[in-house]
Amino acid sequence: MGEKSVEKQTSFPKHKIKVLLLEGIHNSAVDAFRKQEFQVETFSGSIGDGELSNKIADIHILGLRSKTQITESILSHAKSLLAIGCFCIGTDQVDLEAAQKRGFPVFNSPFSNSRSVAELTLGQIIALSRKLGDKNKELHSGIWTKSATGCREIRGKTLGIVGYGHIGSQLSILSEAMGMNVIFYDVLEVLPLGNSTPCPNLESVLTASDFVTLHVPDTELTRNMISAPQLRMMKKGSHLLNASRGTVVDIDAVRDAIKSGHLGGAYFDVYPSEPSSNCTNWTSALQGLPNVILSPHIGGSTEEAQEAIGREVSGYLIRYVNTGRATSAVNFPTIELPVRAQTHRVLNVHHNRPGVLRDINTILSRYNVSAQILGTSTHVGYLICDVDQETSHEVKHLISKLPSSIKTRILY
């Protein structure tokens, strides 16, 4: 599956590689896989665990977005799976440890929709400041109430960004261009952009901001990081925005803060519990509250972002299948080797335990090895090795027979 000059048909035929794409992944990914002559099956939404367990049994590449939950139970049915692609920012919908133990690298696209989320957040800051959500509902109901009460410009106001990564830093630049004062807090020491100012802790952001926006991952440290005590720290009449993860905010506490008048408004794009597909009976404690704008997890849902994500993640998956390159995996040794002519490539995933490298090198010492690299993670080791074409099948057979081996492939 490498370059034409080295292809010797030892790999599993490309036209037999099966790809399953769930949740309406962009056609840029579908086109990329089909250009490789892979078989592609697509679904516009997620599918049930039972159906997924059946389908995963004989597919080689699984692609999904944020709704499908890949558990250890589902992975236990994967007999031919090579890799998983999360066509989104996060990977918390996949049991990464279980995937690693079974030798499945997981790839994602952590940055491709950053601009889309940043733009949407800035738009909602303006909308909250002008109470556009309420005015929109009133006019749709035939009610005309023109008033400047409680409506303000965002120029000169302070925006507090919690999480100064790719989204937070882009939002920082956009907001500053609109005349806002930007402060931020991040657990990592990061370089401020423009005139933004780092803060030593979360409390200092909450107490000083007119708008607080969250751009953090789902971790033990961030779950319910904003609850009743943190909301009380915020300025009276300030606004809270969450377009990160639904687990980081106590929704009921926000509801109470809105009803009491302590919070002037809120925007939410993510929720603690979200439906797996479109529906007409979704409920939330935030519904019906004044100056609260809700959207259905669309932060990265622009054509530009989804096209870019489709290209990026499909590219990672194709390179892994074709060359063994795993440099962008989130749960796997991130190694690669340049493709070499006149060799075959042996790929081996094995349990990470003492003595495995010795056992592998004992085998390889009998053969001519053009290049070799080994990387390890918590549970597995990953070997890429280029050997003479005449001996590649023998090398593969011997390595695959080691008690530590999980899976072994041969390329070219």
Structural class: alpha/beta
Number of strands: 16
- At the fold tier of CATH, the topology name of the largest domain is Rossmann fold
Shape descriptor reads: elongated
Strand count, sense and closure of the main sheet?
7 strands, parallel
What's the mean pLDDT score?
A: 95
Residues in β-strands, percent: 15-25%
Question: How would you sum up this structure, described in words?
Answer:
The structure is a single chain. The chain is built from 13 helices and 16 strands. The protein is α/β, with parallel strands linked by helices and 412 residues long. Strands 8-7-6-9-10-11-12 form a seven-stranded parallel β-sheet, sandwiched between helices. It has a five-stranded parallel β-sheet with strand order 2-1-3-4-5. A four-stranded antiparallel β-sheet has the order 14-15-13-16, with helices on one face. Strand 3, helix 3 (72-75) and strand 4 (83-86) form a beta-alpha-beta unit. Helix 1 (27-35) packs parallel to helix 11 and helix 5 packs across helix 7. It is elongated and about 80 Å long. The relative contact order is 0.13.
Summarize the SSE layout with pairings.
Elements: E1 18-21, H1 27-35, E2 39-42, H2 49-55, E3 61-64, H3 72-75, E4 83-86, H4 96-101, E5 106-107, H5 114-129, H6 132-140, E6 158-162, H7 166-177, E7 181-185, E8 197-198, H8 202-208, E9 211-214, H9 228-233, E10 238-242, H10 251-260, E11 263-268, E12 292-294, H11 303-323, E13 343-351, H12 356-364, E14 369-376, E15 380-388, H13 392-400, E16 405-411
Parallel strand pairs: 1-2, 1-3, 3-4, 4-5, 6-7, 6-9, 7-8, 9-10, 10-11, 11-12
Antiparallel strand pairs: 13-15, 13-16, 14-15
